[in-house]
């Protein structure tokens, strides 16, 4: 069995849901308190044992590369002022095996993942979407890797969502539950309206895929939103090899959404050693005025 060593993080999206903030700033650099959202994703990959990460970027995404590069001037400045803790924080994001490639045109998530073909080669790999920040004892990516060790098959993470929201997600049509929380899937549908949705189990931005997905993506016709959809390619993959869905039960923050972003900031802030006490007090006081 091949080991899963590589992750692909698509980060080429325009971030239109956060305009005007994202007019000049990559949405992946928007912070949760003091940490850019993409750093949470990279940390989940590393905590899962991933060794090499490819970030698929696009126009205006250079700050992501800079964030994971060393900043000698800043490091010297912090060091000369004896700011050891800040220096450690700044250095934490360098020295990771990161690679970058640009998606030249915004043709969809499937097309973004296709850019990783040469990087991935003939190995199983994971795709991690930046809009979903996960928090669980065993990182979700690691859970998918554990499943792969048993099944050697592609597996996507899914979660129950409110029925009215099915049109925001890829939705699975589950077949049977082969072991606790692991489903065989009849088919996958990208963003069905609630009337046509085969279930309320939505794909939530973590995929473990076999490399055969690339041959399919190369020939995949545009689907929902006239974009080349990863979900459609996975549906085709499922016709020739098994694709499973793992139901996730941990916490998920949808930081691609304004409310989800604020929630993530509040909850992360409540755990942040510098501000947790004051923030708790503030929220208590504020709640009295509702
Ligand atoms: C993408 C996928 C969708 C998935 C979602 C999870 O959609 O196309 O299948 O459910 O991510 O966040 P997007 O949110 O990029 O429109």
UniProtKB/TrEMBL annotation:
Residues 6-266 form the Nucleotidyl transferase domain. GO terms for biological process: UDP-alpha-D-glucose metabolic process. One of its GO terms (molecular function) is UTP:glucose-1-phosphate uridylyltransferase activity. Pathway: Carbohydrate metabolism; nucleotide-sugar metabolism. InterPro entries: GalU_uridylyltTrfase_bac/arc (IPR005771), NTP_transferase_dom (IPR005835), Nucleotide-diphossugar_trans (IPR029044). The keyword Nucleotidyltransferase applies. It catalyses: alpha-D-glucose 1-phosphate + UTP + H(+) = UDP-alpha-D-glucose + diphosphate. Keywords: Nucleotidyltransferase, Transferase. CDD domains: UGPase_prokaryotic (cd02541). Its EC number is 2.7.7.9. It holds the Pfam family NTP_transferase. Belongs to the UDPGP type 2 family. This is UTP--glucose-1-phosphate uridylyltransferase. It comes from Enterococcus canintestini.
């Amino acid at each position: 069995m091949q080991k899963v060593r590589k992750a692909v993080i698509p980060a080429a999206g325009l971030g239109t849901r956060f305009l005007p903030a994202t007019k000049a700033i990559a949405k992946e650099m928007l912070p949760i308190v003091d940490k850019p959202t993409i750093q949470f994703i990279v940390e989940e990959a590393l905590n899962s044992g991933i060794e090499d990460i490819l970030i698929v970027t696009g126009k205006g995404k250079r700050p992501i590369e800079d964030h994971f590069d060393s900043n000698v001037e800043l490091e010297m400045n912090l060091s000369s002022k004896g700011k050891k803790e800040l220096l450690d924080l700044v250095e934490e994001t360098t020295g990771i095996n990161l690679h970058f490639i640009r998606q030249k045109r915004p043709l969809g998530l499937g097309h973004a993942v296709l850019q990783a073909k040469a990087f991935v080669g003939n190995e199983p790999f994971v795709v991690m979407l930046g809009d979903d920040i996960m928090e669980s004892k065993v990182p979700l990516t690691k859970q998918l890797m554990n499943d792969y060790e048993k099944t050697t098959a592609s597996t996507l993470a899914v979660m129950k969502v409110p029925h009215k929201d099915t049109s925001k997600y890829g939705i699975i049509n589950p077949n049977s539950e082969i072991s606790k929380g692991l489903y065989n899937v009849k088919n996958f549908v990208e963003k069905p309206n609630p009337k046509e949705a085969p279930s309320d189990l939505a794909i939530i931005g973590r995929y473990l895929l076999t490399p055969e997905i690339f041959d399919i993506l190369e020939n995949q016709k545009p689907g929902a939103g006239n974009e080349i959809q990863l979900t459609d390619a996975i549906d085709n993959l499922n016709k020739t090899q098994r694709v499973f869905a793992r139901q996730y039960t941990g916490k998920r923050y949808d930081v691609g959404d304004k409310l989800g972003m604020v929630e993530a900031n509040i909850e992360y802030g409540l755990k942040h050693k510098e501000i947790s006490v004051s923030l708790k007090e503030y929220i208590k006081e504020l709640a009295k005025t509702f």
